[in-house]
């Protein structure tokens, strides 16, 4: 165990807290410093408008276009976390290939002539599985995440949770900052949401609005590390929308009030490929309704409106970081922030913070119409070049154009159906229900709990033709129930309440009856105090309606098996039959649970981005040529309460919260699953689907994402 602990220490010493900003164009020469107004790079003050693009949430073939689109949108920096659990999946085993080729990603940013903000974490939260921390770390003796203990010495976004860890939390935050600064890497360090950050580290803001934020000491610049231009989505959840006008208002207010570094989280959200999503229940799509959509295309009018905003702000860059700042009240909810220099030049921001009423502001003897909840930018204190509520950029229409799966020869499906429960030998047997995560250690989503009961011929329900009732309680996340090898149903939690209960009548026979329960995780917790201790899996099982009342199976003899058979056999690997007998057919079976489907296809026509339409399927996993498309689950979005309505139009005015502008009630929370074009070969592409509860594979389609201006 000392070897493991040593490996952890060596991997985290250079990556504590967050390393902030450096110029890739002249990293050796461009020293980065700061004062209360701004960062200085190579001796020159700069405003930073940054775009968060997480390298493993896209693919290398997309990186140049994503970075260039951000640059064309008026951003001069790219920001990304570093995802520890992607780079060290097991102790001492490192990976920097494919989507995790961070060096290639940074060089892509360099080639675009942009700055790079590297948020090393390596705790990242980010709706990423386990917050970016390797699950194996939890099982190193003595480890408590985000606390003052020897194996763990890393941090990010700690301020909200520090007090939950007592005095050790404060010591730990101070240690993290001191250790980071001692590396002498030539750039400033910051700790976002860290209100007691030491004098040597910059405290920063995260949120929908940060105009009123001030750093914890007056010698630090005002930095906004996360402005959320949308929000994440969960399986079964609705679509959140944040209007472009409100985002622009928040950004303009931030710079109006002396801000100098701003980062959109996210500017391109991307995709949680494979099993990388957190939550639990975060969708495979991490689109985030960001200015660049999941598929890499500009989202209009949001992208264009923010581009125009950035241009207007940068017209006043020098004045904002060097000029004298004064604030004037122009009337109720009206104010002007004016920046002047010794030559008499000036720039002004006029704002109306009333969330209902348009107003006229008189500034320097000139009248300006200010819509409610808006900011006007006057780079010369006279001419309005931009107002956050006046959207003049183009809008667009997005279509998903479906194509049937096709091949140069007729489609031939290969089908393999697993039997519910244990195959081969059980991994272990216990007279109790075990925790799912502690058992699988996240090596798989799946854990079988299996047992059997013997029903006497004398049971009254057999004579009356009635049915006993199965009761199950679980800490989460999802469960498929099989009785006597037949699929009975599914129970699940959701993104706001993970535990669940199942109550379902069951058909039992005289004699032995098999109870096979497939427990599933849907991404592990990624944030919160002591989040690594959050469990999953079954906590009680019982059957009511027998002669003796209730049969409690909780402490019965349970046999366990980690994963599903096809996983162990590697059926998702290209060309791998797994040594099992596949059925070859032109008409694969429908509504058949625990079934693997394999088909050879050609890529769809055109060059547009591609999404796999899984509306006809139930729940499961998908691969193309061995690449992990990810979890699919076209779960219908529900209301959280009777009054919890979706909206047809969103009013941008007033403060935004994630539930303000939801759409998609009664629709699948995710229907299409991004399949990068670079994953396709010219022909002979192997699509593999593992369907858990039953669907119709013949109705799966590949859809091209077409965006046209309107």
From TrEMBL:
One of its GO terms (molecular function) is beta-galactosidase activity. Its EC number is 3.2.1.23. It is an enzyme of class 3 (hydrolase). The keyword NAD does not apply. Signal peptide: none annotated. It is found in: Secreted, Extracellular space, Apoplast. Residues 335-391 form the Beta-galactosidase beta-sandwich domain. Residues 594-685 form the Beta-galactosidase galactose-binding domain. InterPro entries: BetaGal_gal-bd, Galactose-bd-like_sf, GH, GHD, Gly_Hdrlase_35_cat, Glycoside_Hdrlase_35. SUPFAM superfamilies: (Trans)glycosidases, Galactose-binding domain-like. It catalyses: Hydrolysis of terminal non-reducing beta-D-galactose residues in beta-D-galactosides. Keywords: Apoplast, Glycoprotein, Glycosidase, Hydrolase, Secreted, Signal. One of its GO terms (biological process) is carbohydrate metabolic process. One of its GO terms (cellular component) is apoplast. Residues 153-312 form the Glycoside hydrolase 35 catalytic domain. Belongs to the glycosyl hydrolase 35 family. This is beta-galactosidase.
């Amino acid at each position: 165990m000392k070897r493991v602990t040593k490996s952890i220490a060596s991997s985290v010493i250079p990556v504590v807290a967050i390393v902030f900003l450096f110029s890739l164009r002249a990293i050796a020469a461009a020293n980065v410093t700061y004062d209360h107004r701004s960062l200085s790079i190579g001796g020159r003050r700069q405003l930073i408008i940054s775009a968060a693009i997480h390298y493993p949430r896209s693919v290398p073939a997309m990186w140049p276009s994503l970075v260039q689109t951000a640059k064309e949108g008026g951003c001069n920096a790219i920001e990304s976390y570093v995802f520890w659990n992607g780079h060290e999946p097991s102790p001492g085993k490192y990976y920097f290939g494919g989507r995790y080729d961070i060096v290639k990603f940074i060089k892509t940013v360099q080639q675009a002539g942009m700055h790079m903000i590297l948020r090393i974490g390596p705790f990242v939260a980010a709706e990423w599985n386990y917050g970016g921390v390797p699950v194996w770390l939890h099982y190193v003796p003595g480890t408590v995440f985000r606390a003052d203990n020897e194996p763990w010495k890393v941090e990010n976004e700690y301020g909200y949770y520090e007090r939950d860890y007592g005095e050790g939390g404060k010591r730990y935050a101070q240690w993290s900052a001191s250790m980071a600064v001692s590396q002498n890497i030539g750039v400033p360090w910051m700790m976002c949401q860290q209100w007691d950050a030491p004098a040597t580290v910059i405290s920063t803001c995260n949120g929908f609005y940060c105009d009123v934020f001030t750093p914890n000491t007056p010698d630090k610049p005002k930095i906004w590390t996360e402005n959320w231009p949308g929000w994440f989505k969960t399986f079964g959840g609705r679509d959140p929308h944040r209007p472009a006008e409100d985002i622009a208002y928040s950004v303009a207010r931030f710079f109006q009030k002396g801000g100098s570094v701003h980062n959109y989280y996210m500017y391109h959200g991307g995709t949680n490929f494979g099993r990388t999503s957190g939550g639990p229940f975060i969708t495979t799509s991490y689109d985030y309704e960001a200015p660049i959509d999941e598929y890499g295309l500009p989202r209009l009018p949001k992208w264009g409106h923010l581009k125009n905003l950035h241009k207007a702000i940068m017209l006043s860059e020098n004045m904002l970081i060097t000029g004298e700042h004064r604030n004037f009240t122009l009337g109720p909810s009206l104010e002007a922030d004016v920046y002047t220099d010794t030559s008499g030049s000036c720039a002004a921001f006029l704002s109306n913070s009333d969330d209902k009423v348009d107003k006229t502001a008189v500034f320097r003897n000139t009248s300006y119409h200010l819509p409610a909840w808006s900011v006007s930018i006057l780079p010369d204190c006279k001419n309005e070049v931009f107002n956050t509520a006046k959207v003049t950029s183009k809008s667009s229409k997005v279509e998903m154009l479906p194509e049937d799966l096709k091949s140069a020869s007729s489609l031939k499906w290969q089908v393999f159906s697993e039997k519910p429960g244990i195959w081969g030998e059980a991994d272990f047997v216990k007279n109790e229900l075990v925790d799912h995560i502690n058992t699988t250690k996240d090596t798989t989503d799946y854990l079988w709990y299996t047992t059997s009961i013997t029903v006497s011929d004398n049971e009254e329900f057999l004579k009356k033709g009635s049915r006993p009732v199965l009761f199950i309680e679980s800490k989460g996340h999802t469960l498929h129930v099989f009785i006597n090898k037949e699929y009975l149903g599914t129970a699940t939690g959701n993104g706001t309440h993970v535990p669940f209960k199942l109550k379902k009548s069951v058909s039992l026979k005289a004699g032995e009856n098999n109870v096979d329960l497939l427990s599933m995780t849907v991404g592990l917790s990624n944030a919160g105090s002591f989040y690594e201790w959050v469990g999953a899996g079954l906590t009680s099982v019982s059957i009511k309606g027998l002669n003796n009342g209730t049969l409690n199976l909780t402490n019965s003899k349970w046999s366990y098996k980690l994963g599903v058979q096809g996983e162990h056999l590697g059926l998702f690997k290209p060309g791998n039959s797994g040594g099992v007998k596949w059925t070859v057919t032109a008409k694969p079976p429908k509504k058949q649970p625990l079934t693997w489907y394999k088909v050879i296809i050609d890529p769809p026509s055109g060059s547009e981005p591609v999404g796999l339409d899984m509306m006809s399927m139930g729940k499961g996993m998908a691969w193309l040529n061995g690449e992990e498309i990810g979890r699919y689950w076209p779960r219908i979005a529900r209301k959280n309460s009777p009054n919890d309505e979706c909206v047809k139009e969103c009013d941008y005015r007033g403060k935004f919260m994630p539930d303000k502008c939801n759409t998609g009630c009664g629709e699948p929370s995710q229907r299409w699953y991004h399949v990068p074009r670079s994953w396709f070969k010219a022909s002979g592409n192997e699509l593999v689907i593992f369907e858990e509860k039953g669907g119709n594979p013949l109705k799966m389609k590949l859809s091209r994402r077409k965006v046209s201006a309107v």
